[in-house]
Design brief:
By secondary structure, the protein is α+β, with helices and mostly antiparallel strands. It has one domain (2-60). Helix content is 27%, strand content 29%. The chain contains one helix and three strands; from the N terminus they run βαββ. A three-stranded antiparallel sheet has the order 1-3-2, covered by helices on one side. Strand 2 and strand 3 (53-60) form a beta hairpin. The relative contact order is 0.31.
Length: 66
């Protein structure tokens, strides 16, 4: 399996805000993964602290080795 996390946090604010938001996303979703069956096709939308959509995580098949 392959875990894919894509997050787009606007960097228009202070850099500490960007770091704080990304840290929050990683803590929150890392702590909640046990609620999901980690199988290909499973995924969720990722939100920031203002509940704005900022990305998505998904489980995909591991590509075969070359």
């Amino acid at each position: 399996m392959k875990f894919v996390l894509e997050v787009d946090i606007p960097s228009s604010g202070p850099s500490e805000t960007t770091v704080r938001e990304l840290s929050r996303v990683l803590r929150y979703w890392g702590g909640n993964l046990h609620h999901y069956t980690l199988a290909p096709g499973v995924g969720e939308t990722v939100y920031d602290s203002a509940y704005q959509q900022v990305g998505r995580w998904t489980i995909t098949e591991t590509p075969p080795a070359p």
